[in-house]
Amino acid sequence: MSARAGAATAGAVLLVGPLAVLWWSHSGNLLAWAVVQLGGVLVVLALACLPRRDGALALHLGAVMALYALAKLFEAADHPVFEATGQLVSGHSLKHVLAAGAALQVLAALAALRHSSAAHLRRVTAFGQNGAHAVGAARGPRA
User: Fold this and answer.
1) Which has the higher per-residue pLDDT, 132 or 8?
2) How far apart are CA 131 and CA 111, in angstroms?
3) Does residue 78 contact residue 90 with C-beta atoms inside 8 Å?
4) Residues linked to residue 127 through DSSP beta bridges, in sequence order
5) Computed from CA positions of residues 6, 32, 63, 101, in that sequence, does the dihedral angle turn out positive or negative?
6) Looking at residue 118, what is its pLDDT?
7) Which of 42, 51, 61, 76 is the most buried (most CB within 10 A)?
8) Contact 96, 103 (CB under 8 A)
9) How many CA atoms lie within 13 A of 138 on its CB side?
């Protein structure tokens, strides 16, 4: 996925997700939220099937999918997990932990990308943008 398509997708998710929750709280109808959740899974599955592009985010989509699938299983087994743990923890609670693990995969890949980009910016080059000799310390990341 290109950076432009990724930004558009992220913007759509950041807009549609909260709107689906607002719709549910207003109408009591969970259909919009279910579509958002299923749509997200389908997008990740489609991305996992595409060939990896050069320079793409180093993300293990299989791990993301596995953690999310486990999260959904624990959500479905909310009460049995609660009873099996002596009412210490519910499946719903474990769902959130596993979903956070899936999100952590994405955040770790983004942090690695940011770290490698910052290291790339700090390299000292012999020539500036216009061909003049670079003077002074290497450039750090822009604020």
Assistant:
1) 8
2) 32
3) yes
4) 133
5) positive
6) 61
7) 61
8) no
9) 11
The per-residue pLDDT for range 46-84, each reduced to its tens digit, is 877 777 777 667 777 888 888 988 999 999 999 999 999
Q: How far apart are CA 30 and CA 53, in angstroms?
A: 36
From CA 49, how far away is CA 62, in angstroms rounded?
10
In this structure, what token pair is assigned to residue 43? 């997008």
Q: By the 8 A CB rule, do 120 and 106 touch?
A: no
Q: What is the DSSP string of 54-119?
A: TT-----HHHHHHHHHHHHHHHHTHHHHHHHTTTS--HHHHHHHHHHHHHHHHHHHHHHHHHHHHH
Residue 117 and residue 139: Cα distance in Å, rounded? Answer: 12
Query: For 5-14, 24-33, 62-71, 115-124, which range has the lowest pLDDT when averaged over its residues?
Result: 115-124
The predicted pLDDT at position 120 comes to 54
What is the rounded CA–CA span in Å between residue 72 and residue 87?
Answer: 19
User: What is the distance of C-alpha 142 from the center of its chain?
Assistant: 24
Give the pLDDT mean for 129-138: 45
In angstroms, what CA-CA distances link 84 with 69, 77, 91, 94, 133?
20, 10, 10, 13, 69
